[in-house]
Structure formats: C-alpha cells, structure tokens
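Query structure, 181 tokens:
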C-alpha cells in the first residue's frame, strides 16, 4: 500500500498558501516556519511531530505553520536531507582531526559488509556511534542554515503578499486605484 499514491503536489501548494494566508504577523509566521524547517533537519527522525508540539507550546507559535515547515522532511526528501547532513558533518569535523578522524568510505563499507550477526550487536554500535556524530553535527548545522534561510524567504514572500494586498486597498475604500470622479 502506497500512502503517498495519488497525492498531488498542487494540493501541498494550496495547503502552504492557505496556512501562510492566515491572519497574523508575517514575522511570527516566518519564525514558526523556520522552526519547523529546523525540526525537519533534526536527527531524531521519529520524534518530529512531538518536537513540533513542544516547540509550538514552548514558543507560543502556530502549530500548523511549524508542522508545515517540518514537512520539508518527507519520504521524497529523507535521503537527500540526511545524506547531506552526514556529509556536511564529516566535512565540518574534518577541521578537527584530533577530535574526529573519519573512516574512509571504502573501509567503512568493507567493515559493515564483513560483520557477522554477533558483530552487529558488539562492533556495529561502536561504528554507528562514531559515524553518528558527524550526522548529528551536520543535521544541526544544516538545520540552522536552512531555518535561517527559510525565515528570510518566507518573511519576504509574506511581506510582498501583504504589500500587494495593502497597496490595492490604499486610498479608496472599494480598493480601486481610480482617482475621485
């Protein structure tokens, strides 16, 4: 059963537009969306919805907009987000060779392929912990960068939308730009 079958991207676009069209301060909505994007990059994949609920409550921001931002991470973007997080984390930590020395990919792959069932319970957790650290660092770093970027993009879109609406209704109660007749 394919849960995503029949979902039309235009529906997501309509949902996005309707949520961002809600009344409220553009800065608050942009901040809520950015927090959702940060949550999308959070390395605790199974806890995103719980994190959205907690963030909405803690920061007193709209739940629906934070949830929308967190949906940046979905089945189509899961591997690119977490793969790039791991690679960025490895790259960032490579500047600290005394603290972290990455295992070359070919050796890591070879080690994982040669593990026995017993080794998966004894040696694999050590490998996962060692190579999980770059994943966490990369996830948090990319989450901050993407959240900051999304904040400014969404804020600009919302302010442009507000200016467009406000501009057409200025000066005339009926909203027309015609001068006095």
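Result returned for the query:
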């Amino acid at each position: 059963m394919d849960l995503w079958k029949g979902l039309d991207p235009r529906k997501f676009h309509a949902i996005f537009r309707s949520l961002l069209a809600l009344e409220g301060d553009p800065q608050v909505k942009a901040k809520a969306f950015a927090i959702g994007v940060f949550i999308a990059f959070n390395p605790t994949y199974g806890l995103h919805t719980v994190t959205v609920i907690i963030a909405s409550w803690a920061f007193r921001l709209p739940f629906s907009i934070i949830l929308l931002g967190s949906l940046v991470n979905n089945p189509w973007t899961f591997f690119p987000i977490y793969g790039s997080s791991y690679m960025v984390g490895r790259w960032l930590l490579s500047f600290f060779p005394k603290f972290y020395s990455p295992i070359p990919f070919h050796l890591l792959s070879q080690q994982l392929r040669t593990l026995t069932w017993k080794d998966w319970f004894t040696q694999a957790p050590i490998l996962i912990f060692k190579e999980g650290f770059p994943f966490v660092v990369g996830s948090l770093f990319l989450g901050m960068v993407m959240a900051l970027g999304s904040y400014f993009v969404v804020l600009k879109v919302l302010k442009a939308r507000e200016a467009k609406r406000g501009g057409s209704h200025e000066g005339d109660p009926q909203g027309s730009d015609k001068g006095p007749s």
